[in-house]
Amino acid sequence: MAYVTAAAVGTGTAVIFVWWWWTRKYKRDQPPSKWRKVGELSDLITFPVKSLGPIRMTEMECTTLGLKSGWLRDRTLMVIDLDGQFVTGRQLPAMVQVSPSVSGSTLTLRAPGMMAISVDLARIRGKSFRAAVWGQAVAACDCGEEVARWLSRFLLQEDTGLRLVNYPLERSSREVRTKNQPFPLTVSADTGAYPDATSYSLINEASIADLNGRLEEPVIPQNFRPNFVVKGAEPYSEDTWDWVKIGQVIFRNVKPCTRCIFTTVDPETGKKHPKVEPLKTLKGYRQITDPEIHRYTGDSPVMGIHLGLKGPNGTVRLGDHIYVGVLNEETIPISPP
């Protein structure tokens, strides 16, 4: 395992291939009986509205739809255009400057130069309709004219153009995207409400530190918009994790996180980096090179992992130990034959 970690830090590609090859060949449906501690949960983050600012928490419940604390849920609200297509910080980087908060059932949004606006999520009424995330139909309920006008004015400087929608279901309703199907552990139950790929994502502080050693200007975990941040693990060791346990809650590493232009948006200023960093640097050493899956992922580099909840609901807390399953290395190799 030490050899695998060293190879990951040096090249950043070999371990990604090992992860894919190993999970495809040795898919296991049951969690292991033995666990090894790899670190601790150093940050717990939820994004109630896709692409808007974060809310940091000290504890949250884990459900199949994602993190939850009362009416606060991860990525169950989303901004769409008038055609029903999802809108993200890729197109409108200033979205990250909108700060959400949730008190009881009331969502409040704040942004520079704007009066705060609130929406009572418990009072959202109206017939569900279909919006779209990456071309896939998803259920949505409109959150009303006032918040639509507020978002349009801040992000478009227009009175119309954007709407805010809420996810009305208690389960995932999307199939796995075509580009994610080469990863054998991805299933529709893990697609969440409105996230790009799965209900959970994890980033490793040590991997960010190694990346920052290659950059002129450092980035922070929030550039990658994770739910879980782990400290104490080896750089890029997350590439090789299979079963993951945070406290007593069990997850599966279902695929690596492929990264896009959104990583170049400064989480504080809402401005894209003029040199397209850290995406440019990541493309230099964190590419998936295997041709069988490269045709799906293209030149998108990898940083962090996507998780699926594989046990009952449970609560995770800051400081929880993070474990990975211990496998029988005599029967399950950690490098290609």
Helical amount: 10-25%
- What is the count of DSSP helices, taking H or I runs of 4+ residues? 6
Q: Please, what is the average pLDDT?
A: 90
Following the backbone from N to C, one meets helices and strands in this order, namely HHEEEEEEEEEEEHEEHEEEHHEEE
Strand order of the largest sheet: 1-14-13-17-16-15-19
What is the CA-atom radius of gyration, in angstroms? Answer: 20 Å
Please report which band the strand proportion falls in: under 5%, 5-15%, 15-25%, 25-35%, 35-45% or over 45%. Answer: 25-35%
By DSSP, the count of extended strands is: 19
Bulk shape: globular
User: Which structural class is indicated by helix and strand composition?
Assistant: alpha+beta
Distinctive features:
single chain, 337 residues, alpha+beta, four-stranded antiparallel beta sheet, globular, disordered N terminus
Quick rundown:
Helix content is 17%, strand content 30%. A hairpin with a 2-residue loop joins strand 4 and strand 5. The N terminus and C terminus are likely disordered.
Commentary on this structure:
There is one protein chain. The radius of gyration is 20 Å and the shape is globular. It is of the alpha+beta class and 337 residues long. Strands 1-14-13-17-16-15-19 form a seven-stranded mixed β-barrel. The protein contains six helices and 19 strands.
